[in-house]
Structures are given as C-alpha cells and as structure tokens.
Amino acid sequence: MPMFAGHLLFLFSALGAINGLFLAIYFFSRRPHRLANSMLGALLLVIAVRTAKSTLYFFNRDLAVEFLQIGLSACLLIGPLTYLYVHYHLVEFRQAVSGHEWRWHLSWPFFVIALGCFFPYSEYRIIWRYSIYGIHAVWFSYLLAAAWQLWRSRAILFDDVAPMSRNTFLLLSVFCSSGVILIAYVTTPLTSYIVGALSFTFSVHITVIAFMLRKEALVDAGKKEKYQNRKLTEDDALKLLASLNQVMHEQQLHLHPNLTLALLAKKTGSLQTTVSQVLNDRLNKSFNLYVNEFRIEDAKKLLLNEPHLNMELVAERCGFNSNSTFFAAFKKITEQTPASYRAASKL
C-alpha cells in the first residue's frame, strides 16, 4: 500500500473512533438525562474502542495481545447496548421511566469479560479466536430483538401522516449502523480487517450530517406551524373534540404506548398547539391525561372480565409502558388502585 494512501486510510479510520468517543461524552452529558441517551453513549463508546483496536491492529500487527482482548470484549457489548438504546428510546418516547432491566442485559456480558481475565488471550488464543463467532451471534440476536420492538412500534415511527422526528431518525440510523458494522466484521475474511472501522466512521459522519440537516428542516416547519396558529371558534373547538374522540375510538390509538401529541394532531389534520389548546381549554386536561383516560377504561374492563391477567399484562395491553405509570394513572383517575378495583368488583 502506498504511504500516502496508508496514512489517509489510518486517518479516516481513526476519525471514527475519536468522533465516537466525543459523541459518547455528549450523549452521557445530554440533558434532560435519559436512559436512552446513556445507552447510546455507552454504545458509541464500546464501538469506538472496537474501532480503535481494529485500526491499530491493521497498521501494527505486533500490537499487544491485551488490546485484541479488549476489542473482542467491547464487541460483546455492542448487541445488548443497541437493543437497550432502541428499547428505552421507545419507552421514553411518551413518558419518563426508571427501568432496571438494563442491569441484566449488561451484567452477563461483563461476567464473560471478567471470566476472560482468567483465560487471557495471550494463553488461550484458540478459544478467543473462535469466541468471535459466538459474539457475532449474540450481536445478531439482540439486533433481531431490537428489530421486533421497532416493528411493534411501526404505527408511530413510520406513520405516513406525521413527519419523522429527529430522535426517531437517530434511532433508526443507530440501529441500521449497528447492523452495517456487524456485516462488515462478519465479512472481514472476504474483504479487509479495516472495513469494520471504516464502516463505523462512515455511518457516524453520515448520521451526524443528516441529523443536523433534519434539525434545520424541523425548525423551519416549526416556524411555519407557529405562524399558522389561530384562535378557534366555539364550533371549531367542538368539531375538533368530536374528531379527536372519533379517531381515538376507531383507531384505538391509546393502545400504542408511543402515541404522541404530534401523531394525534396529524390524524385529525390539526396543529399540535391547537389540539393541546382545545384539550386544556375545553376539557381542562393535558394530552397525557386525555389518553390515559381511554387506557384506564380498557383496564377496568380487563380487570373485571379477565381475572387471570396479572397487573403487568393489563398495563401492557392497555398501552402503558410500565407498571408504575399504570398504577399512578389508575389511582389518579379512579382514586383506587387496580387491585382494590378488582377486589371490590367481587364483593
């Protein structure tokens, strides 16, 4: 390889690792603090470590074997972190949550990594070389789990009426990039060892550029919406309320845990600000309360008609993302807990 081409290739590959590190710091410190941002920051960090290892090893085959072990260990975390980012993004789409399932998804990879300390790469090279197949299988399995969650949320994420938000665009880009990087590493025997690092560099830069361009487009759209806003007449407000109720009943939108004000507004051909104004002025309700009332009505029916269902299943079937949110909403609207409501019906 010519010296200039080699330097250029090294620079381009290293940029992915460096930018991944800075982006990880950005998402770790982003406010408001959300689990999805933390998972994305961790994902970018481990991919940056893996990319740095690949780049250094490609240009220096005498690299200490400890670095090879670190790179493989980081690879084990990419799949779980991709899934956790997708999961928490969808959960936090509507409401804040405090989840703990991430501990299990990350605890076992860290256990395997710790186990590797007793079986170092320098002494067990054959085991580590064959372990990459298992690591790729785990990565692929978590991608399938993330794809399933995205598929279940397709009504919101891929709605033809509502424009795709910046966060949703970032979500899909990260998911696709994780898949592209996996393909790059799996096909290394057919291409080159450096392809994985190059694929990360490429995906990071394309995503960031497109993300920023989408931000400008949405800002312009927001300005147009602001100037289009106008005061509703009594008749217009009543018609909009009727339209909202009709859409909610006919399309059962409340059953989707990621329903947003933007989507509901688009379904009725109205502006978000107009829908929010009508709900507050005419019904004295927030968007969350309005939607939760539909969910609680369904929950009441399930609690009475299907006593075999536990509270977690009832919450999930009614569109709630967590038991805590379900209990809080049920208590606020009915002034009873779900369990006491079910028990009272048996008296």
Automatic annotation (TrEMBL):
It comes from Undibacterium flavidum. SMART domains: HTH_ARAC. This is Helix-turn-helix domain-containing protein. InterPro entries: Homeodomain-like_sf, HTH_AraC. It comes from the Bacteria. Residues 245-344 form the HTH araC/xylS-type domain. SUPFAM superfamilies: Homeodomain-like (SSF46689). Pfam families: HTH_18. The chain crosses the membrane at residues 6-28, 40-59, 71-90, 102-121, 127-148, 169-187, 193-213. Keywords: DNA-binding, Membrane, Transcription, Transcription regulation, Transmembrane, Transmembrane helix. PANTHER family: ARAC-FAMILY TRANSCRIPTIONAL REGULATOR (PTHR43280).
